[in-house]
Fold:
Amino acid sequence: MILRVNRLLVFALFLALSAILNPAQAQPAAPAANADLAEHDAGQLINGYKPAWWKEAVVYQIYPRSFQDSNGDGIGDLNGITTHLDYLQKLGVNVIWLSPHYDSPNADNGYDIRDYRKVMTEFGTMDDFDRMLAGIKARRMRLIIDLVVNHTSDEHHWFAESRSSKDNPYRDYYIWRDGRPNPDNPSHPLPPNNYPSFFSGPAWQYDPATKQFYLHLFAVKQPDLNWDNPKVRQDVFSLMRFWLDKGVDGFRMDVIPLISKQPGLPDLTADQLANPSRLWANGPHRDEYLQQMNREVLSKYDVMTVGEAIGIELTEETNIVNSERHELNMVFNFDAVRLNRGAGYTERKWTLPDLKAIYDNHARVLGKMDWDTVFLSNHDNPRLVSNYGDTSTPEFRVRSAKLIETMLLTLRGTPFLYQGDELGMTNYPFTRLDQFNDIEVKNAYQERVLGGKMTEAQFIAESQRFGRDNSRTPMQWTSAPNAGFTTADAKPWLAVNPNYTSINVAAELTDPESVYHYTRRAIALRHAHLAFVYGDYKDLDPTHPHVFAYSRTLTEPGKPTLRFLVVLNFSKEAIDYTLPEGIKAGKLLLANVASTAEADESTLHLAAWEARVYSY
Ligand code: NOJ
Structure:
């Protein structure tokens, strides 16, 4: 008996001590993210879908450079992220996608990796990473990291070796070719083919050391790896295992369809030149290499994988995401996020029925063995509310941001939110070139403005509208100088949006009607109902020019059918909307306007940018 009491005492002491030494783990356990989902039997299909945690997740993307600086150098870092894990847990997201955190010379803000097994010095150390990961796990959240393996940095040691001589063992890790003769200047050969780079100029760089060109579909400092070399694949698989063995829960795979190059690298035809990614994404070995990756690495872990589907049409997506093909879980398709974009940074006219048709097509094309993503923002696109909402008045900004969050969190597919979306952060009022940091903008300026294709004013206007730095400005935490992102006297790496004095976390936390609290409620709603994850999707009124009305319905044997109705007024006009025949609004679960009850459940009196979710 005494022995037992002593054991209990020792155990209690151990618990108390570990709570003091390891405060992150002493957090009270978070409620299961999906209260009713946690109870379902993992082996049983739900509405024909095999349940999985990554299908039920709400993902939050962190761009570490811009999230929180903890050491006053003006650059966000991992310890900064760790200080905000409670914030993220309270928001209700359960997976974090971290943009690249690896050692990098930052030609493209970390998408040019110098060492895959080292943390970028500005972001901290491996110990900081481990602490952040432990804090995420302690809060019952998960972490996926960016896997950037179509290319490396030119400062990666593989490339340093590769470029040193033609017979170096690493030569074949990259794609080297002789140039074509230049009749006008024989000592300056022409690039091997006519491939353009995504970041302007040709996709080939001449290297005087060995007098050959190397391929770089992105920046000169981002040479493409040669995936046809089995050693490259094994080295990539090994670095993936390194991070998975540490406990990360999966990968977002950067431009992954580009890994298989066209045999012989012939010139692009004029048609192909209009959209080269279509061809580049459909190389002959893409699926074979992804299947090998799945077989040798991914299948050994319980992971989430999402590929950036550059160049992939919706109808081709199932080749990658069909679970019987054992490649990736899901991809990001650009059809919705780029609906309003023409070539480059030009504006394309769109209508609400166009957007609805995209989601409708997804529901038709992707079947029960496939899975989808829903997103309208990330670090490569403008701010959500500036892009698809209405920033013409403060009231409409708030309301339209909430409306878009409602849509993202009730559509079919795993939703991905980007940092600051939950506040309704907006584009930056850029007026000068020197306010931009992004290599895409800087290179395009050389080609377009200095090349005489457009005026500087036009270029700034387009970059202000669509430039990637809009979403990369620092996270707005408080109304203190530098928005609490860094210390008051530091110079943030990219200027803080001047509207931080009114749009910031501290202000939104204290306002129950803020975009933050609304987003939190919308996330909780998704987590609370299986139908938002596995339910069927039906567009109830595909042609209505301003109202987007759809249902999510879940039917399970022996259980009552669960039906939800989402009604979104995508306009700045009030609309009396009569629901399609046979549908009546039921119980109001969420609304972004303090609505009065409707006398007649068939006609809804929607205010400008009003969003409502009903169960019916
Ligand atoms: C896609 C990434 O999202 C983008 O930020 C990057 O510039 C390119 N891939 C190249 O890695």
In short: The first helix runs from residue 2 to 21.
